[in-house]
Amino acid sequence: MADSDTIITLVGSRLANEGMSFTFIGETPDCDKCNLKSTCMNLEKGRIYTITNVRNATVHDCVVHDGGVIAVDVIIAPVTCSMDSRKAVEGAKTQYESPVCDEIECGMYDMCHPKGVKKGDKYTIAQVIGNMDEECILGYSLKKVELAI
Predict the structure, then answer these.
(1) Residue 97 sits in the same domain as residue 118
(2) What does each C-alpha distance from 13 to 17, 60, 66, 72 come to in angstroms?
């Protein structure tokens, strides 16, 4: 991962552990008056991030996080999901497309409609992990892959 892919942000001090992943849910009304808002709110809502480095032990006051916030480096986390077998080629660049499916009771639904993936984003297939854990009930031929932005 290149340094240019790293984002400096602030997270709750209790959550600031290297390797920890989180979904950025956006700001609360309490954030409006905070002087650090631009540093905390520099992430994309709905995206999953992984902390790669805790910058220092300086804890800044925060009305949202009771233990304050601390500076960290984050990257957009890789996403494990399903993909059409014919398109699952390691190293290929792609735009993720969920299979056309509304079978929300299916055990693979979350793999076919992964959190953190934004429609229209371009991804690299970092790894073809292998076959899915179950067969698709609609008959799609799917592979499990890891996508990196």
Answers:
(1) yes
(2) 9, 9, 9, 10
